[in-house]
């Protein structure tokens, strides 16, 4: 594909076809992404790649944890505290989640993006049940046959996050170029234990987020094109 077509065609895919990704193709994409720049070429990332039965099992465990934690969060306060103290299903992420609202301008964009997505899906704003069900799909990777979990070494501080972001974008573009779809997923950073149970995560590495990868299906959700900011909003005015 032409470079600009790849750049413009990449969009987050949230519904995947029941079609496996050949191992050789997966390896090719990862090798292409390894061409990415990184701070002093440190490449401070590691990836756990789940495919086949392992991907399915991991998805089932994450979905079950999501439902359980969601149920607890809706309990009245005293009960919630008791459940939280005894449950093994509360998020055990390596990075503290952003609590409460984002700063105003980002909160507005976040809400607009979420609302746009629900509109495409025909989900009403106050339809909590459908919204929960849609959220749960994150944890089974939107039916993707490949789930990736990205780790960084936090000893590299913020540059490791920059490096990982660049790597992920290279991977997403490489996948788009081959007719595949991806969705970067912060949601997949919420529970570390199910991934740790199945992979030998090197000491010190922290789970940042995940990514679903596979062949897009023709569900309307994949047509969603959230608006990007304008150059005016992007650029800082010179004094
Ligand atoms: C770091 C990161 C985390 C994300 N986490 C999620 C997620 O958990 N679930 C999801 O559906 N989309 C997630 N996304 C996708 C964004 O919502 C999406 O990139 C954004 O709305 C812009 O849409 P586009 O990717 O189609 O251009 C994430 C994207 C990034 C870069």
Detailed description of the structure:
The protein has 239 residues and is of the alpha+beta class. It has one domain (3-221): NADH Oxidase, CATH 3.40.109.10. Helix content is 46%, strand content 12%. The protein contains nine helices and four strands; from the N terminus they run ααβααααβαβαβα. It has helices at 3-9, 23-33, 52-73, 77-86, 104-121, 128-139, 157-177, 193-198, 231-234; strands spanning 45-51, 146-152, 181-185, 206-214. The protein has a four-stranded antiparallel β-sheet. The longest helix has 22 residues, at 52-73. The chain is globular, with a radius of gyration of 19 Å. The model has no long low-confidence stretch (mean pLDDT 96). Bound molecules: flavin mononucleotide. The site of flavin mononucleotide (FMN) has 12 residues, from β3.
